[in-house]
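Problem 3 from the worked examples.
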Amino acid sequence: MRKLIIALAALTIAATTAFADEGMWLPALVSQRIADMQAKGFKLTAEDVYSINQASLKDAVVLFGGGCTGELISDEGLLITNHHCGFRQIQRHSSVEHDYLKDGYWAMTRDQELPNEGLTVSFLDRMEDVTDMLLKDLPEETSEEVAKENSVKIAKRIKALEKSLRDEKKGVEAEVEKLFYGNQYFVFVYRIYKDVRFVGAPASSIGKFGGDTDNWMWPRHTGDFSMFRIYADKDNNPAEYSKDNVPYTPKRFFKIDRRGVKEGDFTFIYGYPGSTREYIHSEGVRYVGEISDPAKIALRTSRLEIMKKYMSADPAVRIMYAAKQASVANAWKKWQGESGGIARNSTVQQKRDFEKRFNEWAKGTGYEGLVDKIGRKYAELEPNMLAYEYYNETIRGCEIFGAKDKDYYRPIDEECTRAMLGAYYANVDSSLRPPVFNEMVASNGSVDRLVDAIFSDQALADSLYRGCTSWVKNVLARKVASINGGINALYKQYMRAQMEFEPDKAFYPDANLTLRVAYGHIAGYEPRDGVYYYPVSTLKGIIEKDNPEIYDYDIPQRLRDVYAEGGYENIPVCFIATNHTSGGNSGSPVINADGNLIGINFDRVWEGTMSDIAFDPAFCRNICLDIRYVLFLLDKVYGAQNILDELTFVD
């Protein structure tokens, strides 16, 4: 085991041969990357980036709401993240009378800052390699059975370690995450704050400008930001919401650089990327690009068309379904770019070519035949996994089967349910559907009649859902989990084997919603022959797209009026860079060579969304909101001088 840990460390150090901008690196190991970062322009030290002994940049970054990133921008707990990360909170505070989605909202005093039940932010106190502790004295995994036994033992050790580090009174939680498919383990210790109040956000026609049409696209003109404030008790510790709480005093917050960006400038992302699969087998890539993504795209296209029809006809319905529609649309468009990128780059064939070379190297070693074993497991997994994904996208996506919240509109749900159950019945083999579903379709005569029945009788709908859920949980999901368990056990070997096969290659752990750093530079790209995208967009582009006839392009009149005053054509709005990002990086601070805030990450370009599987330096670009557009909006459009007065600038 000691040899494995040393080998992993050596492989991380050997990362200098990687593409300069690929990689999501653990902050605790940033000392192994700092020389390369400094050679590319970074002016800070590894201790400035991550330290457990003194305040560092990590102390200004939070996991926001369990799925996004946010950053502190004042010494009074003021936090900025994306508009789409705060969208649910903005929506919950909105009504037809006070439509903060449509009009925006800014608290001009502290007592106007709005509480958000259930919203938390998590600060990382420290991360630590616990591989040796968790894998000590475990037998070599010579079979799938031994691998399963080891997994049970490791899970018990993880549970005990997390419990030993937890301190509920101080808001301290610990999570152990496996890296490199279980060849390495790190524990992450967090301090979680529960009193997070909404400070403000621009109108959705700014914060979500372009809507689904512009989502994942460049050039982009979206002012994707919102602001919150963290509150603590009188001792600066986490506390439940109370009027007696005071603004949190951070160990570190970001100063803001207004000097702007230009092509070639160093950029640094600090955040919580959600999930990547950079080292998977060719059959895993083929399933994503040719089977899974196309199926899910078709299902969500149907749901989105139904939502759009009703939302366009009624402003109240538009508000009710704004967050739901955005949630459905986000992955829908991402999958289109991902599957398209996999096809364009022939990623499946590239993986097969690698596997061919690997097989030649593996002859006569303990890894011989490993690639074929994984391939056979995927063949077993595919029909079961597809059925499971269909269930999640169809039956689980129907609101009739869940608790109805205040944002419920029956005509949308009924039409979506009819479409989803019809697609599920048509595309999933009867042997992979819950027996209760098959029986109810048969007894009613058709899917349409079954839908009529469940919308006439909620008890029948509940019965159908319970039966489907029970069968999927106890039969299909268990089968999928069992096959995936076998695949993951093989991946643990395959990951180790890849490292041995390519000892000079940079290996960084796949993203898993733990804190990472990624560095790159401002850069345009060429999406197709004869076309070059410059890396900066401006306010002029917003005015060019402005259209009062289209909700997502109907900017506030105040923004039109300010622009008409003249001199604002070149106000920067967004920029793109080569940082390796993923879901979860939404809201991440974009930092310059001096460690100061220049933007907020919020998206990737459509042509590069396959970076979760294969990073292509020619196309992979992250889209960032220029901090100067935020300042312009606060000043000229919303008059939020109280916010501007809190910020610290470096010029």
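Problem 4, a separate protein:
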Amino acid sequence: MARIPLLQMTGISLTFGGDPVFSELDLVVQPGDRVALVGRNGSGKSTLMKVMAGIVEADKGSIVVPPGRSVGYMEQDPKMEGFATLGDFAASGLEPGELYKVERAGEGLKFDPSRPVETASGGERRRAALAKLMAEAPDLMLLDEPTNHLDIEAITWLEEELKSTRTAFVLISHDRAFLRALTRATLWVDRGQVRRQEKGFEHFEAWRDKLWEEEDQQRHKLNRLIKSESRWAVEGISARRKRNMGRVRALQDLKAERAGQIKRQGAAELALEAGPKSGRKVIEAEGLSKSFGDKAIVQNFSLKVQRGDRIAFVGPNGAGKTTLLKMLLGMEQPDAGAVALGTNLETAFFDQTRDQLDGDASLWENLTSDPLLGISGKADQVMVRGNPKHVVGYLKEFLFDERQARAPVRSLSGGEKARLLLARLMARQSNLLVLDEPTNDLDVETLDLLQELLDSYDGTVLLVSHDRDFLDRVATATIAMEGDGKAVTYAGGWSDYITQRGGLPGAEKASKAEKPKAEKPKAKPQAQPKAGLSFKEKHRLEALPAEIERLEQEIAKLQELMADPELFTREPVKFKKATEALVERQEKLMSAEEEWLELEEKSGS
């Protein structure tokens, strides 16, 4: 029997006062789908996801979610008015017996449910929104950049949760490793079209390049045909005017077809120019120690950074990566030890918090009023590595158009803000780049360009990132902040670090912490010790009887409805829906009963 889609979009069209974002779009998401949603920054990925979630209303077309099915969306900027704490927000809408799901997600995603909403950072709010969605477990999850503001341990936890879930999901992410591990199909948003391939993100780039090659071949053939027909029109039209007006009209149609084609957006013209060479020794740190109260950041840490090194800093959020980085740059004093900086250093910073950008000022003003560039006010030109360039021309190199130049920065997407920061960064000469989470929100093509740029950069790079793929492609050494003041230097990128260390530090802690939990007896008689069950399995076993009872009640109601012998002839549509719902619930009941039996057997009770 054919599966009923979780979500079906038909004839969706949407404009925001200019060119269509989508036109006559048809899209289906099936149960069990694990879909990567990819495309350039500004192509409409997030907009499409909001249309799917019902947050943005299309100009025309229909969206159908079958009765009894639910769609959940992870908000980028969740509204938390009326909630005292992040935990109150994350638990809203859940039954009392399901509150443990928020606690569990809070542990995995590393957010504090007791944190007051008014003091929570943007990253903490996003983690609470993600925990809320994971706890609600809708039939279809729409995840827009869920790994932003997560450290690698939390990303790994989320990755494992999504691998094991039966819930369908559509996923936007810049994290290639995350996409490769999770997705089985790809939706590609490109110039108002949405194409689908029934293969995961791992196969996306080969597919995209093949389609672009075919498109170039078709455009080349069309140009040759127009050229040939135009020559005929000039040379022979006067002698055969009446007989060949159809051919002239066909030529006009060909030209209209070419004019109607939407050109592919070129790649951003990223360029980095190293300033005068620094000395061979860039940074030398000896015996650094730093603590905040009882918390040790580093203890007796030493490091030598040579010209041309690419040093990555990894570790959980709050481990002290930024503090150590500031000490190495002489921006913060250690409690003990010393740092010596090399000669002739010219440093450029990429700030993940976007604090360098004034949200109320325009892109133009943000480029021309930066004192670090030696420019103030609203000049027409910006100094780019010592040469004047018109502001609009320089912005176009980073894929901004003239209309955006005067728009406020707050109107930009996350990826566009990242590109604007790169434009500011790359306007300066430097020989030491400090990049704090540069990959957040950037599309795949821009990430590729940035990586190639860093490969050819004739200077030194200090990099903080949670993007495992980017770390592997860029870093020549990795400094791992492993807690309790322990900072260890490993050769190579992320995969090299894991291989040399023999696994993540968190894995050891988790395995040690799990044993006493499994052996700890419960006070309630209905929840006796389950020696062979994990935390998640124990709660699942406790929740299954109520779920089985609910499904049995729903099946009984549907069977009662279908017992009416005239229902099929009187209301065929209702009969069809009831039949499909009955089959679906019977399958769910069978699955739940099998799961209960397996867990009961495993528990040894």
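Solution to problem 4. Residues 508-531 have pLDDT under 50 and may be disordered. The chain is about 40% helix and 20% strand.
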